[in-house]
Design a protein that fits this description.
The chain has 343 residues and is an alpha/beta fold. 59% of the residues lie in helices and 11% in strands. Helix 5 runs antiparallel to helix 11. The radius of gyration is 40 Å and the shape is elongated.
């Protein structure tokens, strides 16, 4: 008896067998590939571990070499600073060595002078605020008074920025008198358009009129004020320079009156005190250098501005070069034209 369904069942099971084989073969191939990759990774790992100590050794060598060069550099810097400090001290001692009146002293003075500013009998100092006269120009005032030059001080505001105008007025007179300036030679301007305020714009024409009036009435031979950077960068300081420059350009300053501006130096030089001495002697055309006793006079005068004695001004008194050194530059019409074009 024939069973037609038997061949049909046999044909279905033979078709399923290759499919299962292919699946098992693919699984075994994938597993083998994964094992082989893991084996290769394991074989390469010792090489990486061998390379890692070599990299560390190179970094350690570079670090030690850098430390060696750094130590040598610091030694050289320390040596240079020591030599420079000794040079400053020797120069300073030479400036004020006893016996400068003999023939040796006369020969020495033309090579190394403690002051080099134009000779005059009457000088006008123009400042912006009470305390400017001693904070920045103290050495110049003392040197002019040592030469028996009459010093007039024109202060263009009473310093009422914090409501202390009356106090600062008295401090100005006290400080100037302590440096030898006569009380009657001090002029303080109290004008609404010249207020102590960094945000206030001081008109050039207004300042120029005040300065020119003093020059003509006092018949001075020397005018001293700030340069275009104002030492501290205060806008009121800079405004005085541009007013003075406008007078030079217009030819209103008499030919008998020379104009000196106080040089602004960078922050590093500003707080070197007497250690700025060699740089000043090399770069400046006019300068004043005080001895240690005169320096204390300037410091004492600065302390008379008690309303301004905050902590950073106490540090300024100790470290600032402007307590012991002033470097000034004489300006004329051509210099002013060049500076204005450069600006």
């Amino acid at each position: 008896m024939n069973h037609p369904s038997t061949p049909s069942d046999g044909n279905d099971s033979s078709a399923a067998t290759p499919s299962l084989y292919d699946t098992l073969s693919g699984f075994m191939f994938t597993s083998f590939a994964s094992l082989r990759s893991l084996a290769l990774h394991t074989e390469n790992q010792p090489d990486q571990q061998q390379q890692q100590p070599g990299l560390v050794a190179i970094l350690e060598t570079l670090y030690r070499t850098a430390l060696l060069y750094l130590d040598e550099t610091l030694d050289h810097i320390a040596l240079v600073l020591l030599v420079y400090s000794l040079l400053c001290i020797v120069l300073y001692r030479l400036l004020f060595r006893a016996g400068s009146g003999n023939a040796l002293g006369e020969r020495r003075w033309w090579l190394l002078r403690r002051s080099h500013i134009p000779a005059c009998q009457r000088a006008l100092l123009v400042t912006a605020h009470p305390d400017d006269e001693v904070m920045f120009f103290g050495p110049t005032i003392l040197e002019l008074r040592r030469r028996q030059c009459r010093v007039f001080v024109l202060c263009l505001s009473e310093g009422n920025h914090e409501g202390q105008g009356d106090v600062r007025r008295k401090e100005l007179w006290d400080a100037c008198e302590s440096m030898g300036v006569r009380p009657e030679d001090i002029t303080l301007v109290d004008a609404t358009h010249l207020q102590d305020d960094p945000a206030a714009e001081w008109k050039t024409v207004t300042i120029a009129n005040q300065v020119l009036r003093q020059i003509e009435s006092l018949d001075v031979q020397l005018l001293i004020t700030f340069d275009k950077d104002g030492v501290s960068g205060h806008p009121n300081h800079c405004a005085i320079y541009y007013a003075t420059a406008s007078l030079c350009l217009s030819g209103l300053i008499p030919n008998t009156c020379k104009v000196l501006t106080l040089e602004t130096v960078n922050l590093c030089r500003k707080y070197l005190s007497l250690f700025d001495l060699p740089v000043t002697l090399l770069l400046s055309t006019n300068w004043v250098i005080l001895n240690w006793r005169a320096r204390r006079v300037v410091q004492s005068a600065m302390r008379l501005h008690g309303s301004q004695m905050v902590w950073f001004r106490k540090l300024y008194i100790v470290f600032s070069r402007y307590m012991v050194i002033n470097s000034l530059r004489e300006i004329n019409k051509s210099d002013v034209e060049f500076e204005i074009l450069d600006t």
